[in-house]
Amino acid sequence: MQPALNHPGWIDSHCHLDEFVAHGGQTYADTVRARAQAAGVLHCVIPAVEQANWDACRALAHRWGDSYALGIHPLFTPQAQEGDLAALERALQAQRDDARLVAVGEIGLDYFVPGLDGERQEHFYREQLRLARQLDLPVIVHVRRSADRLLKHLRDVPVCGGIAHAFNGSEQQAQAFIDMGFKLGFGGAVTFERALQLRRLAAQLPLDSLVLETDSPDIPPHWLYVTAAEREAGTAQARNTPAELPRIAQVVAGLRGISVADLAQASFANTLQALPKLAGCVMGTVR
């Protein structure tokens, strides 16, 4: 049962719920989602990362009344083939009337992980932007040491906005995304006191530019963080889950000096603006 709230509830704009099925089975994943619901997380957006999990993400969104995005993540471009782009176009076309398909994603560029072919990443990113533009869908973009290149391609192939997931760039880059109709995703990383630049952005960027996310089971907040030594010793605790979103929101609200309810109202409206098809899912007008 969802708790009594003085706001519309939380939307986790980015969580990989299919990974909980992969790691613990369907019952475990259902428990994770139920705990999030009990914490006030009304809705989750589930982005796919490769062709192999497109069907799983779609099925989970329908199982839990959530929504999903289809795409090829930059970390999966080494094994992706040209045929995957054709398959993505077919899948997007086939599901274009599915109200729970809200974006193309997770797509983007990653210049942090060593050994990735930058040119190959950019090819897959650009082609997926073309699909999003063709189908008039927003995009959910992966931004890791790649904001300038992401923005360059968005200028060449403009789309109808979306979300810059786990944003951690400069204020100038943030404004460039905002000017293109994007919202900026903030999650567990903002809870670390040493993340000075990120916390400053969370505090000072326009309130109507922010959305909240967990990226669960990744990017844990500081209270779940496990060091390499702890992992090696086998003392790792529970993974990040969407149930952590309200506590992450408390940190962001504190940085901004506003109430949690005000942040909830704003982030809820911002997410619906970034992903317009989401409104029908959240308001319960689609099945």
User: So what's the overall shape?
Assistant: globular
Question: Number of helical segments?
Answer: 11
Mean pLDDT: 94
- Low-pLDDT ranges: none
User: Which percent range describes the beta-strand content?
Assistant: 5-15%
Report how far apart the termini are.
Answer: 20 Å
List strands and helices in order, with pairings.
Blueprint (H helix, E strand, L loop, with lengths): L9 E3 L5 H21 L2 E7 L6 H11 L2 E4 L11 H13 L6 E10 L7 H18 L3 E6 L2 H10 L5 E4 L5 H9 L2 E5 L9 H9 L5 E3 L15 H6 L11 H12 L3 H15 L3 H5 L5
Parallel strand pairs: 1-2, 2-3, 3-4, 4-5, 5-6, 6-7, 7-8
Helix pairs in contact: 3-4, 7-9, 9-10
Notable traits:
287 residues; alpha/beta; eight-stranded parallel β-sheet; 45% helix
Structure description:
The chain is globular. α3 runs parallel beside α4. The longest helix has 21 residues, at 18-38. The protein has 287 residues and is of the alpha/beta class. The chain has an eight-stranded parallel sheet with strand order 1-2-3-4-5-6-7-8. Helices cover 45% and strands 15% of the residues. It is built from eleven helices and eight strands. It has helices spanning 18-38, 54-64, 82-94, 118-135, 147-156, 171-179, 196-204, 228-233, 245-256, 260-274, 278-282, and strands spanning 10-12, 41-47, 67-70, 101-110, 139-144, 162-165, 182-186, 210-212.
